[in-house]
Design a protein that fits this description.
With about 525 residues, the chain is mainly alpha-helical. The chain has 2 domains: about 10-245, Rossmann fold, CATH 3.40.50; about 265-500, no CATH class. It has helices spanning about 20-25, 30-40, 40-55, 65-75, 90-100, 120-135, 150-165, 175-185, 190-195, 195-205, 220-245, 245-260, 265-305, 315-340, 345, 375-395, 405-515; strands at about 60, 110-115, 135-145, 170-175. The protein has a 4-stranded parallel sheet, with helices on both faces. The longest helix is centred in the C-terminal third of the chain and has 113 residues, at about 405-515.
Length: about 525
């Protein structure tokens, strides 16, 4: 097991040397083996491997010569018995020649390092076949599992590849030297087990046969170290049970869950209402500005139209209103998409509420024909009088000639009639243009009201859909919170009921280990 910075005597009674006490002791009794197997299964496997193989022989290392391999060799060197690893050989064919040189016996054990992020290659499979043909015992380790989230899928795929190559008896040990470093720095035994180095060292110790047992006390040292580490694990568990840190953490988690038991419904609904109100204000303001811009453009266009084109203007205005409605619809959908995205954090969904598009508002019936009133008759009289007066002014020089005096009256009347007709026509054009302009104003007022109703309807429908989404999501979270709270409460009750028995069992296991380390 890994070296510890603390002296092992602190884990055994009265400062005795555990190596000396276990050196000449018989094999572990069944009760001690049961305690070690329960608390330190990797240590038990290591003891059995050392017991079956004696001292460890050198192992040929096949893998990349990089920082990860160096760190793996460094961490493996901290375990007892020490396994001698050769320098790493990266090239598969060169490794085969190194492990089985011409005229020399092949290596007894070879450790092949695989990348946790890629599958087995053809060269590696060919190397496995060659080494197995030479009688070399092969161990496969997938290094660097901490850096890949999908290493389990790669591990399963590699095992399938080995099975298809008639090597189903080979196993791949997932390891991470960096996790082992973190476990050693924090004194976390469970993290060390998850790093896989203890399992890899146990397999290496079991496979590394061929060296003679020298009687140097290596088995006793390993046994003492495993017992000391097992006792430390039990002592740590006793300290954790007596401190009550884990139940306190569960109570804190339960309090946090109960504080947010509504599943965030109140916050989400409040956010939804405020965002809907803001969207309503923005969209209403946008509709008003667009309608005013259309009204201004229509008035300018009416001033430029010829009198003969005024009759076709309602159709042109309807086309402009249709385009304006399309722009308003696009703006509504854009705001609804922003609103749905804003509350996605509360609901977990990412769908814009469906919205029905109604036809564009109609500008209404065409303007009615303008009816002549008193103003028209007054303009006829004013035009005729003005024309006659202008005619008399123009023909006044003719009145000096007696023979042309009668003709001057006829010319004056003709000029008066022409002036009256021009004034009446001009008045009619001005009145018709003003009539259409008034109709446009009334029609756009109606269009604005319909567009505002369109905005309000879209927001009400979206509010209904989004509120239902918020309620469904918060209800699901409430159910999950209740389930988690019930699980924590059951765990707290079970811990309170089982803690005395667990403490007694841990103290009994410590006593069994202490009797083995320091027999009476």
């Amino acid at each position: 097991m890994p070296d510890s910075d603390q002296p092992e005597q602190a884990l055994s009674p009265a400062g005795a040397d555990p190596v000396a006490r276990v050196l000449d002791a018989p094999p572990l009794p069944p009760d001690v083996e049961a305690v070690v197997a329960r608390w330190n299964p990797q240590g038990m496997a290591l003891m059995r491997a050392v017991l079956g193989t004696g001292a460890a022989s050198a192992v040929t290392l096949i893998g990349p010569d990089d920082a990860n391999t160096t760190l793996l060799r460094t961490e493996l060197a901290r375990f007892e018995p020490r396994i001698a690893l050769s320098d790493p050989v990266a090239d598969a064919s060169a490794a085969a020649e190194t492990t089985s040189p011409s005229g020399a016996a092949p290596a007894a054990v070879a450790l092949i390092l695989l990348d946790a992020g890629s599958s087995l290659g053809t060269d590696t499979l060919r190397l496995v076949h060659r080494l197995r043909a030479d009688g070399t015992r092969i161990l496969l380790a997938m290094n660097g599992i901490h850096a890949y989230q999908d290493w389990r899928a790669v591990h399963a795929h590699n095992l399938d590849l080995l099975a298809t190559q008639d090597a189903a008896d080979l196993d791949i040990v997932p390891v991470s030297a960096r996790l082992a470093v973190a476990a050693r720095a924090g004194g976390d035994a469970s993290l060390l087990d998850r790093s896989g180095l203890t399992a890899l060292h146990a397999e290496l110790a079991a496979a590394a046969a061929g060296a003679e047992a020298t009687g140097d006390g290596r088995l006793a040292a390993v046994t003492a170290r495993v017992l000391a580490e097992t006792r430390q694990r039990v002592a740590d568990q006793v300290a954790a049970l007596r401190s009550g840190a884990e139940p306190a953490r569960w109570r804190e988690e339960r309090t946090t869950l109960l504080a947010g038991r509504d599943g965030g419904r109140a916050t989400a609904l409040s956010t939804l209402r405020s965002q809907l109100h803001l969207a309503r204000v923005d969209l209403m303001t946008d509709v008003g500005s667009r309608v005013r811009a259309l009204h201004t453009a229509a008035r300018g266009e009416l001033d430029r139209l010829r009198p003969s084109q005024l009759g076709d203007y309602p159709e042109r205005l309807q086309q402009a209103v249709t385009e304006l409605t399309g722009a308003v619809d696009v703006q509504i959908e854009h705001r609804l998409a922003e609103l749905a995205l804003r509350i996605d954090g509360a609901t977990g969904e990412h769908a814009v509420p469906a919205r029905r598009r109604d036809p564009a508002p109609r500008v209404g019936p065409d303007p009615e024909p303008r009816h002549r009133g008193v103003e028209d008759h007054l303009m006829i009289a004013l035009g005729a009088s003005a024309g006659v007066g202008l005619g008399r002014l123009l023909v006044s020089p003719l009145a000096l000639v007696p023979t042309l005096d009668a003709a001057s009256w006829l010319v004056a009347l003709l000029l008066g009639a022409g002036a009256a007709g021009w004034v009446v026509r001009a008045r009619r054009q001005v009145a018709d243009r003003a009539h259409v302009r008034q109709w446009v104003s009334d029609a756009l007022v109606n269009v604005k009201a319909q567009l505002e109703q369109r905005v309000a309807t879209a927001l009400v429908e979206s509010e209904t859909a989004l509120a239902d989404r918020v309620v469904r999501a918060s209800t699901a979270r409430m159910v999950e919170i209740d389930r988690r709270v019930a699980e924590l409460e059951a765990r707290l009750r079970r811990t309170a009921a089982e803690q005395p028995g667990q403490l007694a069992a841990c103290e009994r296991d410590i006593e069994i280990i202490d009797r083995r380390i320091s027999p009476a």
